[in-house]
Amino acid sequence: MLRLLATLLVFILAVIPVRAFDAGMADIFSRGTREYGFVLGYGENHKIPHAMSARFGVDTFRLRYGRYRSPRTQFAYEVCAGKQTKDMHSTMVSGMVTCRYYFARHDRLVLGTDVGLGFATFGEKVPGLSTTTNFAETLGISFQYVTSDSSALTLDYRFCHISNAGLKLPNLGVNASVMSVGYSWYK
What we know:
Radius of gyration: 17 Å
Shape: elongated
Number of domains: 1
Low-confidence stretches: 17-25
CATH architecture: Beta Barrel
Number of strands: 8
Number of helices: 1
Strand content: over 45%
Mean pLDDT: 83
Largest sheet: 8 strands, antiparallel, barrel
CATH topology: Porin
């Protein structure tokens, strides 16, 4: 799957027109700028905790709306729909509030960290979780490649934890790694 994401990234970079870096491009990350984006991803759960025997993957589609509070800090709302693959075939819907902090910027490449809190609900009960609606937390890193003065390509990795916070047992939780590629527009 990682090979597919890398191929998709190369294809998108080859197809999207790229303008030379200019002073206007710096305005993308200024206070008050809004981001509208979509992200496609794939992830698999970990066998952590090892009592979690079910193995599954998940294909995801995220819509993202964010607003910059400063050139380095952005708060965003994300809505995600997904479909489990491999041994399970349940659907998933989640909503999340995220904070992205940009810590490095070089020419067109911008690097940041993501932290998110929200909920995830599954169409069917998932092994290790006693409820279909659960809390979701994410921690990740994002790479954004600025393609014009109003758009950017995003590649991100997220570690996700989903559990019901001990409200009902069993609550082993689900831990997963998700790789995603997306595209954003800025206004």
